[in-house]
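Fill in residues.
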């Protein structure tokens, strides 16, 4: 005959005080997660340097995410030596240089640069001679009509205002239209 022993504390019903403590801990945990997510998204804006990047709007709509402009930056495609190996999802730091008010690719490194303006990204695809990097600023949300107009009328002529935190994390905060699309 098999008998299973169950600890005695599992037979007791939780008291009112135990339930209250459990609810408070659950609420505290949820608020902590939300606060960390919020701070992570606004920290580049509070502490970062403002830069302007040239971009191409490519796709305005997602059924799940809503209306936005998907942005393709020049720094998304980095030329590399064919023998250079990258791991998918690994961090990469792209140093930027300002030329005529627009920040452009200068160099890249897998280690954080000690000085200068740089942006942190993740390797998403490796082709021969280029690596595709995403920085978390590839989408800019806007009303449906405006997103469609931007896609149809911009044709590769756009600039995005980005804040880059000292650790390289970036947040897009403004979309500058170079035509009548955003009027």
């Amino acid at each position: 005959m098999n008998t299973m022993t169950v600890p005695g504390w599992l037979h007791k019903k939780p008291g009112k005080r135990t339930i209250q403590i459990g609810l408070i801990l659950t609420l505290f945990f949820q608020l902590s997660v939300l606060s960390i997510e919020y701070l992570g998204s606004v920290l580049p804006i509070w502490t970062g340097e403002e830069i302007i990047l040239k971009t191409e709007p490519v796709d305005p709509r997602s059924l799940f995410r809503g209306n936005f402009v998907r942005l393709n930056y020049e720094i998304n495609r980095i030329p590399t030596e064919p023998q250079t190996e990258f791991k998918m999802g690994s961090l990469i730091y792209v140093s930027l240089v300002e030329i005529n008010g627009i920040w452009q690719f200068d160099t890249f490194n897998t280690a954080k640069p000690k000085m200068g303006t740089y942006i942190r990204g993740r390797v998403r695809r490796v082709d021969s001679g280029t690596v595709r990097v995403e920085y978390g600023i590839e989408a800019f949300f806007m009303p449906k009509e405006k997103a469609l107009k931007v896609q149809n009328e911009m044709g590769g002529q756009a600039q995005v205002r980005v804040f880059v935190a000292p650790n390289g994390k970036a947040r897009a905060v403004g979309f500058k239209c170079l035509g009548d699309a955003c009027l």
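The longest strand covers residues 49-62.
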